[in-house]
Amino acid sequence: MRTQVAIIGAGPAGLMLGRLLDLAGIDNVIIERKSADYVLGRIRAGVLEQGSVDLMERAQVAGRLRAEGLIHHGTDLSFDGDRLRIDFTGLVGKHVTVYGQTEVTRDLMEARQGNTIYEAGNVAIHDFDGNPAVSWERDGVTHRLDCDYIAGCDGYHGVSRASVPQEALTTFERTYPFGWLGILVDKPPVAHELIYAHHERGFALCSQRSNTRSRYYVQVPTDEKVENWSDDRFWDELRLRLNPETAEALQTGPSIEKSIAPLRSFVAEPLRFGKLFLAGDAAHIVPPTGAKGLNLAMSDVAILADAMIELYAEKSAAGIDNYSQRALARIWKAERFSWWMTSLLHTFPETGRFGRRIQRAEFDYLSGSHAAQQVLAENYVGLPA
Ligand code: FAS
Ligand code: PHB
User: Fold this and answer.
1) pLDDT at residue 349, as a whole number
2) Whether residue 163 is found in the same domain as residue 287
3) Catalytic pick from 198, 288, 323, 346?
4) Of the residues 99, 149, 196, 216, which is catalytic?
5) Number of domains within the chain
6) Does residue 138 have its Cβ closer than 6 Å to ligand 1?
7) Is the per-residue pLDDT at 260 higher than 90?
């Protein structure tokens, strides 16, 4: 078998890249190790920057997004019960859209024209400096796909970055001493916008997927186990971290999903190795506090797709030669914002009383400074690509 671009991973990055290449008439094959149902079953991001919404429109998959996406003109921060609304539209003239990653993935899967190989075992990358190829096993048969280029869209634990010789890669990492315990529930959201809450017991987030489905998170220690958390224990803890009127308004019910995600900041440099390109979580990870993970994957793919279209249509390698530098410039700004939001809103016992006072001073400064609120707003809604 042969194709022009082999894409590893059928998450949002791989599926969006495949869709943009399909529309440009560039032959591509996606190789995914899990089943489509498994990929759709992962509950992850919930907030889209306008750039990601625009990309869904460009990909001609935005019909449901337009109908079901919830426009949010701001968000609430809560610090030990004090509330501050960040008015995105008033501060920077832009908004975000609440639309789950699961729905983004479903829309892209349904529109997929190219070949997608699901449940591909032992995926391996070959000769990405010369004549690249991808191999995999399925139903007891080993398959090989020769290609011009490989796009590694296979996430943090994927094979793409792992296939790069260590000496060719520089990584930057910060792990956090906590994770997020998340719950999905078919109950109306507690508020019409998101609430990011700092409390001495830990961070909490009130988010949503629709007017009838909500998503909540509480900060938990890294060694916490989801089986230690009954729904009742989760709701009790969440109420303790919210201000009284919000806690009172909370509508609880049986969880339809409950999981713990570790938090880390991570970047791999560069993002190109010969004919192999890294995009999305294969290249970087952000703590979800800034709602950047999915959106960064989308902006990587927009840059990479344009570079590949330029290469095949205009025989110009300028775009692919510049991909890594251009994507990393935006990635690092999102890493900074995600780290800053995480540092402001979570409890870090190791920083002691001084650390908590600095967090309180940061919140008080934000509360009193239009300029500081504009900085938060322009980062949250998404910096220009
Ligand atoms: P993905 O990880 O989504 O997709 C990679 C795909 O590659 C997967 O389908 C995987 O099965 C496949 N794959 C892996 N190894 C392979 C191999 N060897 N061969 C073939 N295929 C392989 N972001 C937010 O903005 N907000 C959030 O609340 C949020 N919560 C998250 C919770 C968790 C538990 C995780 C892990 C991430 C979360 N993120 C969140 C970030 C998340 O949304 C990612 O940014 C987003 O999924 C990135 O998309 P991809 O780069 O496509 O990677
Ligand atoms: C979510 O709804 O899953 C969500 C929203 C905002 C975040 C993180 C997660 O910052």
Assistant:
1) 87
2) yes
3) 288
4) 196
5) 2
6) no
7) yes
